[in-house]
């Protein structure tokens, strides 16, 4: 397994750590963060989530720079993104920080695209993420990070940035999913 794929696997392995921390088993209490109360566990979980998300850029950079792009990496990279994002979104719904119906839309799209990728892979075609998919991923990361931080950064100016960011992420999630299916409709047209 090459270095980019190891970095991708590390993103997957950070998910259980994120989950343990976000549920605050150590009862760390609250902290002042930019003038607002924020659970310490959510702050640490946000840092873990942001770090794990940044590994997406790092693995891609090394894979392209050193010509280490593999089919395994093309499969694992979007899977790692989907697992990390889905875990975080489900936690945010449980804590009442994200609307469940928006999260359902996002996760359904992720399952649908993963299914399409599996069908394509069965036909010998492995498709890397396109720019729209990358925008979708980064808008999701921004929204989740802001929600984990309880929108404290923008609370001082009364801007519901985290909620707006989640709507933007949902928009790009739907658009990129539609684009992915439209570009690969031949799978369904040619099937019997």
UniProtKB/TrEMBL annotation:
Enzyme Commission number(s) of this protein: 2.7.8.5
Domain of life: Bacteria
A GO molecular-function annotation: CDP-diacylglycerol-glycerol-3-phosphate 3-phosphatidyltransferase activity
Pathway: Phospholipid metabolism; phosphatidylglycerol biosynthesis; phosphatidylglycerol from CDP-diacylglycerol: step 1/2; Lipid metabolism
Enzymatic reactions: a CDP-1,2-diacyl-sn-glycerol + sn-glycerol 3-phosphate = a 1,2-diacyl-sn-glycero-3-phospho-(1'-sn-glycero-3'-phosphate) + CMP + H(+)
Chain segments annotated as transmembrane: 12-28, 40-62, 83-107, 164-182
Transmembrane in keyword set: yes
Subcellular localization, as worded in the UniProt entry: Membrane
Zinc listed as a keyword: no
Keywords: Lipid biosynthesis, Lipid metabolism, Membrane, Phospholipid biosynthesis, Phospholipid metabolism, Transferase, Transmembrane, Transmembrane helix
Membrane topology designation: Multi-pass membrane protein
Coiled-coil regions listed in the entry: none
Family: Belongs to the CDP-alcohol phosphatidyltransferase class-I family.
Function: This protein catalyzes the committed step to the synthesis of the acidic phospholipids.
NCBIfam families: pgsA
Protein name: CDP-diacylglycerol--glycerol-3-phosphate 3-phosphatidyltransferase
């Amino acid at each position: 397994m090459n270095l980019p794929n190891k970095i991708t696997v590390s993103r997957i392995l950070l998910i259980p750590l994120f989950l343990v921390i976000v549920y605050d088993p150590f009862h760390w209490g609250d902290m002042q963060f930019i003038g607002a109360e924020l659970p310490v566990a959510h702050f640490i979980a946000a840092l873990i989530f942001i770090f794990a998300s940044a590994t997406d850029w790092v693995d891609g950079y090394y894979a392209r720079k050193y010509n280490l792009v593999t089919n395994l990496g093309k499969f694992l990279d979007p899977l790692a993104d989907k697992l990390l994002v889905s875990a975080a979104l489900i936690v945010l719904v449980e804590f009442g920080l994200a609307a469940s119906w928006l999260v359902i839309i996002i996760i359904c799209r992720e399952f649908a695209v993963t299914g399409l990728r599996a069908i394509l892979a069965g036909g010998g075609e492995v498709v890397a993420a396109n720019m729209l998919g990358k925008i979708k991923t980064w808008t999701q990361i921004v929204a989740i990070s802001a929600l984990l931080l309880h929108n404290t950064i923008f609370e001082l100016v009364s801007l519901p940035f985290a909620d707006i960011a989640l709507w933007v992420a949902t928009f790009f999630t739907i658009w990129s999913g539609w684009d992915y299916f439209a570009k690969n409709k031949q799978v369904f047209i040619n099937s019997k």
